[in-house]
Amino acid sequence: MTFGTDIDPDIDPDDTSTNPSSGPRFDDVVQRRASRRTVLAGGMAGAAAFLTTNLLGATPAAATPPSRVRATELIGFDPIPLGYDDEVVVPTGYTARPFIPWGTPIAGDHPAFVAGGNTAAEQEQQVGMHHDGMHFYPMAPGPAGSKHGLLVVNHEYTDENYLHTGTSTTPAKSTWTPEMVALSQAAHGLSVVEVNADASGEWSVAKSPLNRRITANTPMSVSGPAAGHRLMRTSEDPEGQTILGTINNCSHGVTPWNTYLACEENFNGYFRLDPDTYTPEQQALASRYGVGGDRFNWATHDSRFVVTGTEPNEPNRFGWVVEFDPFDATSRPVKRTALGRLKHESAYVQVAKGGRIVVYTGDDQVNEHVYKFVSNENWRAARARGRSPLDEGTLYVAKFNDDGSGEWLPLVHGQGDLTEANGFADQGDVMIKTRMAAGMVGATRMDRPEWVSVDPNTGMVYLTLTNNNSSAKVMSAANPRKPNPWGHIVRWNETGGDHTATTFEWDLFLIAGQGRGSGDGSTIADEDAFGSPDGIWSDPEGRVWIQTDGTQPLGANDQMLAANPYLTDDAGVPQLRRFLTGVPGCEVTGVVTTPDQRTMFVNIQHPGAGSPSQWPHLDGGTTPRSATVVVTKDDGGVIGS
Ligand code: FEO
Ligand code: CA
Ligand code: CA
Asked: What is the per-residue pLDDT for 21?
């Protein structure tokens, strides 16, 4: 990326590599692993065959469901075909209803939604735009908790055309006003919404004091190694302790102490990098994180998003994981800097041996890395001392070896090359420059890491790698196709089943695409064709829900499938069935069920982006609106059964 130039709004910034490190690339690893056994002579199809027969199910040890899970009955619905219509489609016997679309009044004066006509002040009292990661927190014990809870929803970004005009017309950059910037900032962030189901299963929004909007202007604290650091200080915040807002909140995590973790993904494009004199350190940070572009026109009227040589640090205050307590509407969110600074996708929380907290997180850009944080101590003990388990621990980055083994490499100041001579004067430097630190220790470059999920029954960790068509892609065993237009899913077992372990065994769960018959290297059946896996979630019974964001086979709409890791075919490929298809232009992202698994919430994000849509067709409206979809089974059964 050229330093100081604008980002092309038509190019997904994740598709450009800013990683100059020499770490092994996943496709290289597969190629080396394969070539040693001389099975790659057949090219990509040969690679796929090799992967299918030699990796899938070989290592790590095949997932073993607990006896209560009857593998052959885990998935009971009839799969649906690829979708092309402007409706969300689910299998026969299921119903999907749109819920809490962008603009739904939830707080304050409960202002009504007006397509393209709400003020910033009104938007702050309404559900934000572009729903993404999400969690349902039950608000009652037992069965009642599946009828009443808090929905917390990330709002990743905004489509400025629908936001400001309600139509496909995008306002010219020269016409932007301060109010338009404020509206865009108010539509970002998160929503907390108390929801109830009535006796018929119809869900509604409660007028609750817990309902809350967090936006790009909500004051937040900073904790961990980067709090107060010289690179976190600005003229407005000379102590480096108070940050306004969170942006580009993609996926999320949930802690056992019932807080929510919102990830900051593509924060870099919100800033304008002005021509100026920059120090080598400032230049390195801006180019490695791709800062610049003013993608949302905020810099025009909000100087906080203008980067100069004398005011260079505001971008360093983004790219973090933000924790907040959804059950306290006055609670101040905290940026937890011990989890590293990157384009965080999910922050999946796993309680490990000894009650230590492990947080898996991916950095979604071409050739970026996968990380895990391990807390120093038992989470209850830390909290009893008034400490956050997320503030004290070690951040590791993954190295996928070509023999199916893997290592977690610690990012600790003073260890290895992470020294002052290399630009890491303290642990705050290591966290603010996480990407540089990861490159220095030899982490594996991956095909755009997205969500991580852990099977609650087996401890198997799943990671989606959405795609990688960059000419800069580095191949490896764990990233075996170049180009990789369809993506794949890696999984691993931590050594000894211990999520704090520093070694693991990995393999490929599946390789996405048009299907085995197409010869594109995919391992899945033709009827299960899908591409660009992004969201992934293992439900309590072990179904792996896979959501897509990007190009689909045969030009179809984005979709969600269910995989059964306990039932594989002769080639070791898991049973896979398409469960939901979205609408034109959308991505399908965010999935969770109520505790009884009888209501599922799924998000449809950015309908109408690039393709015409009027979904969700509510109240005669024609403006496409991101929304949650409530999925129920008509017989009241478990979703997916
Ligand atoms: Fe926001 Fe990486 O998808
Ligand atoms: Ca995503
Ligand atoms: Ca994505």
From this structure: 73
Q: In sequence order, what are the residues at sequence separation of 6 or more whose Cβ sits closer than 8 angstroms to the Cβ of residue 623?
A: 115, 116, 162, 166, 167, 614
pLDDT tens figures, 449-475: 999 999 999 999 999 999 999 999 999
Please report the atom of ligand 1 found closest to the CA of residue 587: 3
Long-range own/partner contacts, residues 102-106 (CB < 8 A, 24 or more apart): 102/126, 102/127, 102/128, 102/129, 102/130, 102/131, 102/155, 102/187, 102/625, 102/626, 102/627, 103/127, 103/625, 104/193, 104/205, 106/191, 106/193, 106/205, 106/211, 106/213
- Residue 57 pLDDT: 40
Taking the C-alpha atoms of residue 480 and residue 487, their distance in angstroms, rounded to an integer, is: 10
> Is pLDDT larger for residue 475 or for residue 39?
475
E-state strands within 187-259: 189-197, 203-205, 212-214, 219-223, 242-244, 249-254
Ligand 3 midpoint to CA 429 (Å): 28
> pLDDT per residue over 255-312, tens digit each?
999 999 999 999 999 999 999 999 999 999 999 999 999 999 999 999 999 999 999 9
Calculate how far, in angstroms, residue 364's C-alpha sits from the geometric centre of ligand 2. Answer: 8
Residue linked to tokens 């929004």: 205
Does ligand 1 come within 6 angstroms of the Cβ of 27? no
Amino acid identity of 300? Answer: T
Burial 569-601 (b: 16+ CB within 10 A, else e): eeebbbbbbbbbbbbbbbbbbbbbbbbbbbbbb
pLDDT value at position 17? 82
Residue 364 beta carbon below 6 angstroms from any ligand 1 atom: yes
Residue nearest to atom 1 of ligand 1 (CA): 250
pLDDT tens-digit profile of 192-216? Answer: 999 999 999 999 999 999 999 999 9
534 lines ligand 1 (CB under 6 A): yes
Q: Is the pLDDT of residue 178 over 50?
A: yes
Instruction: Report yes or no: 4 and 273 within 8 Å, Cβ to Cβ.
Output: yes
Residue 243 has phi, psi (to 5 degrees) of -120, 140
CB 486 within 8 A of CB 531: yes
- The label of the residue with tokens 């852990």 reads 454
How much distance in Å is there from the Cα of 204 to the middle of ligand 1?
Answer: 28
Task: Name every residue whose Cβ is closer than 8 Å to that of residue 362 and which is 6 or more positions away in sequence.
Answer: 344, 345, 346, 368, 369, 370, 371, 446, 449, 450, 451, 452, 463, 464
In short, whether 391's Cβ falls inside 6 Å of ligand 1 is: no
